[in-house]
Automatic annotation (TrEMBL), chain B:
Signal sequence interval, chain numbering: 1-20
Protein name listed in UniProt: Cell division coordinator CpoB
Region Disordered: start-end pairs: 37-66
Lineage: Bacteria, Pseudomonadati, Pseudomonadota, Gammaproteobacteria, Cellvibrionales
Record function comment: Mediates coordination of peptidoglycan synthesis and outer membrane constriction during cell division.
Natural source organism: Candidatus Litorirhabdus singularis
Residues annotated as domain YbgF trimerisation: 66-121
Chain intervals with Low complexity compositional bias: 41-63
Coiled-coil blocks: 71-105
Subcellular localization: Periplasm
Pfam family, one: TPR_16
Length: 427, 274
């Protein structure tokens, strides 16, 4: 018993340490969230369960703002298989859906789960996920994805990851760390660190490679980093600005900003041939390229009209079209996978907010009410926007749903975090 | 210069200290120009042994400095011009956008109006058929739908929506030939009246005839107040103020109690032009 307690304590400590970087605070959810009970999963492996799978799933569903997980204390019984489910018990607590499951295995674990519709008294999902025990949290996120998809009709984006830059003051100098973490901020890992700034992390569509800008050679340069092998490559080393890398949807090329020929312009780097192609030629500033999902055009920020606004560039023809007219400052656009939702930084009344523009209806709505919001990045399913903002003088990450209804914050325990980038789907 | 600097400060949030490279480059070029003028005089001096060593650069300098200043002035002028072009471009973009919006809005107003008038026509027709049934007279063709009529009307109306006004006129003419007594005949006359006003050049007489025909053939149609108002406008455009006034006042006198939007339009038109 003592042994077990000790293992559990050691484990808890480990978990606490692993979670030290980002903490989630939910600030606003929907008015009528769906009541779902996620019963603690049975664990049939050796020793204590490595992760509380049900807790991870509850957290995911809660963060989506569309679900209100039933507290474990309000559960009348804790079934783990179908024959232990009594719908009456769940109806009395107004539970609409019930998720139960079992985790088994050692090095490779399997999570079996079943989802029930309490009012119709039917089982609507019975499935399983397996993988290495170290990835148990990811398996739990995948279960959340399936449940979310079943109940909302939208693919879940819980089993994804985020990149961000953490800045801490250590020994009198700023240390910049490029971090990668699960979408819930847990399991954060350092990708690289430098005493010089790290900026603009960007995911390859395969979810394995990333690109970013680092000043480690005291000049900005674009690097490519393979998260699986750890291999790192410097892609550019031009005089002046080398920035804002954006991987094309097919993964074969990268749009970026270089000022080697004068003012900052957009260039396209073919990753196989390492050939650069100049995409814009203008004495104004062209920056922050972001791809349309079809890979045929880019949106970017330019002040060619005297004020920074978003333009769209057709790569084949070179035709450029202005996309934003509301407000005197629109920048850092990124397009959701549906190709019709554009998020960006919009200045209104002197404050920088995250705004979303419906490209079909040409309607702009402001999503955030904080003052210095920047670097929006859309989840691969287009449901949430992750962005950086300031709170109590510190840089934190926050998220808001595309309709503005759901919000949560991911502040770090110490230092500043900024420049988030949400990964594509990983499977 | 100032807005650009503000932009730089703003963009620095997102992408870096280096955006100011734009300016550093210009500065560097200016410096390069300045250093070129210092190094250039060197080869000149040895060929003039009589001149004191120090005198050469001193005598060369003012002219070179002058050209350096000119170059700097030129760069400055260029920057001013670029800024000016950017501001103008911004204004052109915004005005183009506003124009597109206005066009869209006026089209939507047409669509809205037609929808409301169309709804009125549909609402009145069942009443008409009731009356017909009660008096045991065979249903008049004007209230029953002829097969293909709705499709033909919609196709013609679609041309209005896509602003192909000349094609729309042809389509409504054909429509009236095929379905002279159709339930949408009055609407077709009305649209012809409207369309002759929006084509270039306007055909005021054709428009007048279309509206007049509507009033004569369909005196009880829901489009009558609108047609009266439009006739008032057409006569005004034709320079016949008396007739114009007569029609506008008829709208107010005959339909003042209804909620027809034509009444307000007529009042506004009278207030503005008479």
């Amino acid at each position: 018993m003592k042994q077990l307690l000790f293992t559990m304590l050691a484990f808890l400590l480990l978990v606490a340490q692993a979670r030290a970087e980002l903490v989630i605070e939910i600030t606003s959810g929907r008015d009528n969230p769906t009541a779902i009970a996620v019963v603690p999963f049975a664990w049939s492996g050796f020793g204590a369960a490595p992760e509380d799978v049900a807790d991870v799933i509850q957290g995911d569903l809660m963060r989506s703002g569309q679900f209100a997980p039933v507290s474990n204390n309000d559960m009348l019984n804790l079934p783990t298989r179908e024959d232990e489910v009594f719908y009456r018990d769940w109806r009395t607590t107004n539970t609409e859906y019930l998720l139960i499951g079992r985790v088994s295995g050692e090095a490779t674990v399997t999570v079996e789960y079943e989802l029930f519709d309490v009012f119709r008294q039917t089982r609507i999902i019975a499935a399983s996920e397996s993988g290495p025990v170290a990835e148990l949290r990811m398996l739990a996120h995948r279960v959340s994805d399936k449940v979310y998809q079943q109940l909302t009709g939208i693919r879940g984006a819980f089993a994804t990851r985020i990149l961000y830059v953490a800045v801490n003051r250590e020994g009198g100098e700023d240390v910049y760390r490029l971090m990668v973490a699960d979408a819930d901020g847990v399991r954060d890992k350092e990708v690289t660190r430098s005493t010089q700034p790290i900026l603009s992390p960007s995911w390859a569509p395969d979810g394995k490679r990333i690109a970013y800008v680092s000043f480690e050679t005291t000049r900005p340069a674009i690097y490519m980093h393979n998260l699986v092998t750890g291999e790192k490559q410097q892609l550019t080393n031009f005089k002046g600005l080398n920035g804002a890398p954006a991987w094309s949807p097919d993964g074969n090329s990268m749009a970026m900003v270089l000022s080697k020929d004068g003012s900052p312009d957009l260039y396209l780097l073919d990753l196989a041939s390492r050939q650069f192609r100049r995409l814009t030629r203008h004495f104004a500033i062209e920056t922050e390229p972001s791809w349309m999902p079809d890979g045929l055009s880019l949106v970017f920020t330019s002040d060619r009209g005297g004020k920074p606004q978003i333009y769209r560039l057709d790569i084949a023809t070179g035709d450029t079209e202005r996309m934003t007219y509301e407000g005197s400052w629109n920048a850092r656009a990124s397009i959701a996978a549906d190709g019709r939702t554009m998020v960006m930084v919009h200045r209104a009344d002197g404050n920088f907010h995250i705004a979303v523009q419906d490209l079909e209806r040409d309607q702009l709505s402001i999503l955030t009410s904080t003052a210095l919001d920047e670097s929006p990045s859309v989840a691969p399913n287009g449901s949430m926007v992750l962005y950086a903002t300031k709170r109590n003088g510190r840089g934190i990450l926050a998220a808001v749903s595309v309709d503005g209804g759901v919000r949560f914050r991911l502040p770090s325990r110490e230092g500043d975090v900024r420049e988030p980038a949400w990964s594509p789907y990983l499977d | 210069m100032l807005p650009r600097l503000t932009l730089l400060v703003g963009l620095a949030l997102a992408a870096s200290p280096v955006l100011s490279q734009d300016y550093i480059d210009l500065e560097a070029e200016r410096k390069a120009a300045a250093s070129a003028e210092v190094s250039q005089p060197a080869p000149v001096t040895p060929s003039e042994p009589a001149a004191p060593v120090a005198a050469a650069p001193v005598s060369a300098s003012p002219a070179e400095q002058q050209s350096g200043q000119n170059l700097g002035e030129l760069m400055y002028q260029l920057q001013l011009l670029q800024q000016e072009v950017m501001n103008l471009r911004g204004q052109v973009e915004e005005q183009g956008h506003q124009l597109r919006q206005l066009k869209q809005q006026s089209l939507e107003r047409y669509l809205d109006l037609d929808k409301r008038l169309g709804a009125g026509a549909v609402a009145t027709s069942p009443d008409a058929s009731k009356v017909v049934a009660a008096t045991a007279v065979a249903a008049k063709p004007s209230v029953t739908e002829i097969p293909g009529e709705t499709e033909a009307y919609k196709a013609a109306y679609g041309l209005v929506r896509s602003q192909r006004f000349d094609d729309a006129i042809a389509a409504f003419d054909t429509f009236l030939q095929s379905y002279p007594d159709g339930r949408y005949a009055a609407n077709a006359h009305y649209w012809l009246g409207e369309l002759y006003l929006v084509i270039t050049p306007q055909d005021l007489e054709a428009s007048r005839q279309a509206f007049t025909l509507l009033l004569r053939e369909y005196p009880d149609n829901s489009k009558v107040p609108d047609a009266l108002y439009k006739l008032g406008k057409v006569y005004f455009l034709k320079g016949n103020s008396a007739k114009s006034r007569e029609y506008l006042e008829r709208v107010i006198a005959e339909f003042g109690d209804s909620d027809s939007s034509a009444v307000k339009l007529a009042k506004d038109f009278l207030a503005e032009n008479f």
